Give the backbone structure.
Amino acid sequence: MLWLIPALPFFSALMLILGWRVFTRAAVSIIGCGSIGVSALLTIVLGIEFMQSGQTSVVQHLWEWMQAGTFSAGADLRLDALSLCFVFVITFVGFLIHIYSTGYMAEDADYGRFFACMNLFVGAMLVLVLADNLLLLYFGWEGVGLCSYLLIGFWYKDPANGYAARKAFVVTRVGDTAMAIALFMLFQFTGSLQIQSILDKAPTLWTVGNTTVVWIAFLLLGGAVGKSAQLPLQTWLPDAMAGPTPVSALIHAATMVTAGVYLIARMHTLFELAPAAQTGVAVVGAVTLLLAGCSALVQRDIKRVLAYSTISQIGYMFLALGVGAWSAAIFHFVTHAFFKALLFMGAGAVIVAMHHEQDMMKMGGLRKQLPAVYWVFLIGSASLAAIPFITSGFYSKDQIVWLAWSSAHGHTLYWVCAITGAFLTAMYTFRMVFLTFYGEARNHQHPHTPGPAMMIPLYILAILSTVAGFIELPHTLGHVTLFSDFLQPMLPAVHLLQESAALEWTSQLLAAGLTFLGIYIAWLWVIRQPEGMKRFAQMPFMQWLRVFWMKGWAFDDVYNTLFVQPFVQTARMNRRDIIDRIYTSIAAITRWFHDILARTQNGILRYYVMGVVIGAVVILSVLIWRVYV
Amino acid sequence: MSIAFYIAAAIAIFSTIMVITRFNIMHALLYLIVSLLSVAVIFYLYGAPFMAALEVIIYAGAIMVLIIFFVMMLNLGPETTRTEKQWLKPGMWMLPALLCLVLLIELAYLIAQNKAPSTGITPVAPKEVGRSLFGPYILAVELSAMLLMAGIVGAYHLGRQKKKILHRFFESNVS
Amino acid sequence: MNIHPTTAGMTLAGILFVLGLISILIRRNMIFMLLSVEIMLNAAGLAFIVASSHWAQPDGQVMFMFILSMAAAEVSVGLALILQLYHQLKSLDSDEASRMRG
C-alpha cells in the first residue's frame, strides 16, 4: 500500500496533463485535491499501523529499475520514522494548500495546468523522501526541480517570470551536479547506492576525518545548499516569488527547500564521519540565517520578506544539523512547514484582497477590514517570532538555540548567531505585521475577506501552528520527548556537552527577552516612528545599508560579474558560431569546388580542345617518365 | 639530307606560321596553299612522288579551293578582319603556346628515341602502293568510297535553305 | 650536320602539328578552326609518308591516301555545318554556339 502514496499524485498529474483543457474546473479540483487528500489519508493509516507495529522500517520493492554489472537499483520505497514525518507534512500541508489553491487560482485560465504541475510536484517530492536508494532519491530531486521551474514560470507570458524560473533552475543545477558527483563517489567506494547499506558500510570503510568521506560529505552539502537556498546558492529563492502564492507556500516554504535538510539528515552517518563537513553545515546555516534576516528587514514586497525568512529558518535547520541536533532540525522543519505555509497563504489572501498588490508600503489598516486574515496571520507570525509558551515555533527554535551552545559540536559563536537571528526574526516579522495590518489604510481599495476555500486551510494551519509544539518540550519545561523518541531509531540523539538546567533557563530567558525587544523596536519603527529613529534611518550609511540588504547582500551582482557576464560575452564572441562553421565549411568548400568545376562547362569549343591538349601532355609525360626516365 | 629538304621545310614552317597569325581569311588560305605545296615537295624528296601529286591536286587544288569559294560566298567583309584583330591579342598566345611547346618537346624526345636500323630514304614506287591498295586494303578503299558518298549527301542536305534567306546586302536595302 | 632523314621528317611533322594545335586553341572564328584542323591532318600525313619511307613499305602511303579522302569528306560536311551555324547565329564566333551557363 505504500506505493499508492506517491503513485496517486503521479496518476492524477498524468490525467490532468492529458485532459486539463477538457475537464471542468470542478473536475480538476476534485482530481487535483482528491489525490493528495487520499494520499494524506493513506499516510495517516499507514503511519498508525507502522507506529503500532514497532518495526524500524518498512521497505517495499516495486520493480528492478536497472542492473549493470555489480550495480543494481530498484524502485524501492522505504517507510521509517524520518520519511514518515516528511510524508505526513508533504501530504497534509500539500492537501491544505491544494484546497487553498482552488480559491486562489479560481479565476486563472490555466487552472488545470496549475493542478497538474502541483500534483506532479507532490508526487516527485514523495518519491524523494520515500526513496530507499540514492538513485531514486535523485530522480525525485530532479523531479521537484523541474516542477519548481514549471510553477515559478507558471505565468509564462511575462518574460520576467521565465527569467526567475530559469535562474532557479540553473542555480539549483549547480548543487545537483555536486550531488551527482557525490553519488558517483559513493558508488565507487561502497559499491551500492542503497541508503541503508551505505550507512552501514561507511564506518567500516572510513575512519573519522578520512579525506574521501569529507569530500563526499561536502559534495552532498553542495547539493543540499542548492535545493535549500543556503549560502552560496541562495540567490534564486527571492526571485522565485514570481510564481503564484500557493506555489511559494508549498514549494518554497514547506517542502522542496527542505529537501536539503532531509538529505543531510538521512546521510547523517557520513556527516558524523566527516567533522569538517559537519562544521561546514553549521557555519553555512549560521551565516545564512543572519544574512537572510538582515535582508528581510528592509524588503517592501510581502512575499520577499517571507522568502528571506524561509532562507533564514532553513539556516536554523542547517545549524541544528551541523551541531548534531538531528531531531531538533526535523522538529523545526515540521513546525516551520505549518507556520510558514500559513504565513504564505495569509499573505496570498491579503494580496488577493488588495487586487494583487504586493507592496507593503501600499497596505495598512487591514486589521479592521480583514479581521479573519489578520488573526491567522498574527498566529503564524507569533510562531515565526517564537513567542514563548503559546506557539510551536518557540519550542522548536529554542531547542536549536540551546543546542547550538550545549551540543558536543556546539560553539558559543553559533549560539550568538542563533540568538541574534531570533532577534532579527522577531523584528522583521512584526515589521511585516505592523506595516500590513496596522496604521491607517494607505490604499484606497475595498478589500473583501476571501471565501471559505481559502480560509479553512488557514484556520487548520493556525491551530496546528499552536499545538504542534507540545510534542517536544525542553528539559526545563516538562521534558516531553515524544518527537525525538519517535525519531530515535533513525536519527541518533544529540550528544550534549553540558547538561545544565540553569544555563538552559538563561538561554531561554535571553531568547524570549530578545524576541520581545525585537517586537518593541518594530513597533517603534513602524507605528510610533519617533524622530530619533527617523534621523537614524536617514544617515547616508544607513541608506547604503538599506539598499545593500535589499539586494540580498549584493550576491546577485557578484554572480553576475563573475559568471553571467563572462559567459554572455563569450557567447557573444561566438555569435557566428565557430563550431558550426567547421561543419558548414565542409559544405562551403564543396560548393567552392563545384563553382570552379562549373566554370569549365561553358560550351566554348576552345576550352574543350584545351582540355584534350592538356590530357595529351599529361599522358605523354607519364609515358616518358615511366618508360624512359 | 639534301639541301632541298631544308629549304622546303623552312618554307613549310614559315608559311604555316603566317597562316596562324593572319587576320584576313583569304591571306591565311593562300599561305596554307603555299605550305601544302612545300610539303608536296618534301613528299617527293621522301620517295613518294604519286603522293606528292595527290597532295597538290586534291589537298591544295580541291579542298583549299573549296574553302576559298566558301569564304567568298559568305562575303564577310573588312569587319571580320577587325574582329579577328580584336580577338587575337598577344596575351592570348601565352598559355596555348606554352602548352604546345611542352608537347613539342615531348614529341621531339620520343622521336629521338629511334633505335630501329634504317637505310636512309627508300623510295616506294606507286606500283607498290596500287598493289597494296587493291590487295590487302581493298575493303578500306570501298569504305572510303562510301564515306565520300555520305559526305556528298550530307553536305547537300545540310547546305539546303529552308526559307528564303536574303543576303545581308539585300537585307539592309529592304528593311 | 648529319641528321637521320626519318628523324628530320618526323620532327618537321611534329612542328607543323604543334603549330596547327596552337592555332586551334587560339582562334574563335570557325573557319580558322577548320583551317587549323587541315594543318594538323596534313602534318599527320607527312608523318605517315616519312614512316613509309623508313620501313620501305607502301602502308604509310596508303594511309596518307585515306587521310586525304577523309579530309575531303570532312571539309565538305564541315563547311555545310558552318554555313548553317552562320545562318542561325549570324556570326562566325564559336563562342556564340554555346547554351551552357557555366
In short: Chain B has two domains: 1-90, 124-175. The interface with chain A takes residues 96, 99-100, 102-103, 106-107, 109-110, 113 of chain B (CB under 8 Å). DSSP finds eight helices and no strands in chain B. Chain B has a mean pLDDT of 88.
